[in-house]
Amino acid sequence: MKLYYLPASCSLASHIVLRELGLDFDLERYDPAAGTTDKGTSYNTINAKARVPALALNSGDLLTEGPAIVQYLVATHQHTDLSLPDDLMARARIHEGLSFVASDFHKTFGPLFTTDTDDAAQERAKRTIVKHLDYLESVFADGRDYFVDNKLSVADIYLFVVLRWTDATGTPLAGWKHLNAFRDRINQRPAVQASLAAEGLN
Ligand SMILES: N[C@@H](CCC(=O)N[C@@H](CS)C(=O)NCC(=O)O)C(=O)O
Does domain 88-189 have CATH number 1.20.1050.10? Predict the structure, then answer.
């Protein structure tokens, strides 16, 4: 297997899950400015969406979209802390958590990562991020350690990756004590530390 990635981006979630599952995989880094990978391959020829993550499977299939990748990985490797529950409602809850992180939380950061967004759009994005952080903080206010049903899941890994962006985007987590503690908790996992090191992030 090979994961196409961009350091610290949402592809970090797929990267962490691959390591959590103890899988054998290669990494190939995408350089959006050049439009190529670090092996000099035009990335459009690999993934026409020109987005990471993309996972090249040993079967020859290319799987894209982070939530699909992490759910596929845990569905095909059941023997870890990240195992999918048998109960369909519990699975739907994980999907619900992933969808919130992907469609609402992650996407709000977009204007803060580009230089061509005006100040008003950046302020609007920050206000929406704060709204999402308040919501997430309220979820953790019942004392839970993990986002969905208080059981570690791929939704926690994706949430951790997006929470990492808050420091760089003017909404540092210090004001949200439960989320701050959650980020520290996930950060301590050996697979997370190994992924961060492999991406040159710690
Ligand atoms: N819908 C995609 C979104 C992926 C996405 O936003 N990828 C960003 C990194 S977080 C990317 O590829 N950025 C590089 C670029 O836009 O050139 C998914 O969930 O996987």
Answer: yes
